[in-house]
């Protein structure tokens, strides 16, 4: 019986060791709904995992929520799109370094008939007209990078958006916000990647694009292991190095939806 017990203990120890190794070869990335809903991660991650053997679990939430997750130590890496908030995160010691990854742009979509007459290339003037006409507008209202950008544009327009009785903050992701806009004939700000992947458009069309202020930049940050010693810093840094290196940047450039590029590589060499 003693011999059997010894083998059982050895087997349990071996299984625990294997589990520990498997756990070490995985990371959690807190990211935005746009990277998930655009299909980018479904394209990128199998390539990274094949190259490194490191599995990636993505938690896709708004940028503000992703930053909160990282502050609590519930993620190893951040991939988000609110540069000012990202730089504060690093300055406050929660992240090691912010690195540019890619960019695309925001677009304003709305009913094809465009009742507020916003069509053009000036996002600030478009929001002023929406406010003047009290046209329905759906905001994510969720502290995401898209929500933060939207609030900046309202401020530039000199408008308090909630003063419009037709303004609706859904507290939801980009896909649900687009669904609400499609169902109610409202205007909504969206990142282009999610828009390209969105199928339930009804009569929504892109009405405002091309304004340089609509550029949408994404950064990647390793969560600081000095704050959270359990952070898988080695594996997380490998993900960052791959994403900002030749293989990851080429994969970002190659990703298409219906033949259209979704993101553009922006890592600095």
Summarize the model shown.
It contains eleven helices and twelve strands. The protein is α/β, with parallel strands linked by helices.
Notes on the protein architecture:
It is a single chain. The chain has helices spanning 2-24, 33-37, 40-52, 63-71, 83-91, 123-133, 145-157, 174-184, 192-197, 233-244, 246-254; strands at 26-31, 55-60, 77-80, 95-111, 137-139, 167-169, 187-191, 204-208, 215-223, 256-257, 260-261, 264-265. The chain has 269 residues and is of the alpha/beta class. The chain has two domains: 2-103 and 215-265, D-Maltodextrin-Binding Protein, domain 2; 105-214, Periplasmic binding protein-like II (D-Maltodextrin-Binding Protein, domain 2, 3-Layer(aba) Sandwich). Strands 1, 2, 3, 4, 5, 6, 7, 8, 9 and 12 form a ten-stranded mixed β-sheet that branches. Strands 10-11 form a two-stranded antiparallel sheet. Residues 1-24 form the signal peptide. Residues 19-245 form the PBP domain. InterPro entries: ABC-Tungstate_binding, PBP_domain.
List the keywords.
single chain, 269 residues, alpha/beta, D-Maltodextrin-Binding Protein, domain 2, 2 domains, 10-stranded mixed sheet, two-stranded antiparallel ribbon, 12 strands, 24% strand, elongated
């Amino acid at each position: 019986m003693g011999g059997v017990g010894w083998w059982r203990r050895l087997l349990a120890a071996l299984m625990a060791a294997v589990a520990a190794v498997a756990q070490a070869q995985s990371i959690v990335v807190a990211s935005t709904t746009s990277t998930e809903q655009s299909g980018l991660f479904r394209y990128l991650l199998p390539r990274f995992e094949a190259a490194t053997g490191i599995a990636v679990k993505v938690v896709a939430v708004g940028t503000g929520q992703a930053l909160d997750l990282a502050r609590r130590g519930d993620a190893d890496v951040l991939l988000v799109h609110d540069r000012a908030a990202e730089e504060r995160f690093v300055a406050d010691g929660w992240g090691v370094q912010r690195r540019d990854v890619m960019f695309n742009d925001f677009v304003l979509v709305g009913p094809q008939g465009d009742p507020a007459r916003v069509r053009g290339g000036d996002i600030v003037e478009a929001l002023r007209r929406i406010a003047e006409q009290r046209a329905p507008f759906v905001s994510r209202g969720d502290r995401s990078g898209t929500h933060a950008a939207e609030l900046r544009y309202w401020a530039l327009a000199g408008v308090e958006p909630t003063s419009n009785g037709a303004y609706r903050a859904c507290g939801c992701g980009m896909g649900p916000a687009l669904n609400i806009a499609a169902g109610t004939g409202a205007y909504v700000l969206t990142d282009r990647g999610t828009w390209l992947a969105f199928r339930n458009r009804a009569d929504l069309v892109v009405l405002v694009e091309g304004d340089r202020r609509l550029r949408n930049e994404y950064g990647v940050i390793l969560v600081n292991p000095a704050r959270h010693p359990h952070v898988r810093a080695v594996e997380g840094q490998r993900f960052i190095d791959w994403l900002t290196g030749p293989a990851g940047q080429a994969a970002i450039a190659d990703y298409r939806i219906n033949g259209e590029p979704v993101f553009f590589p922006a890592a600095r060499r």
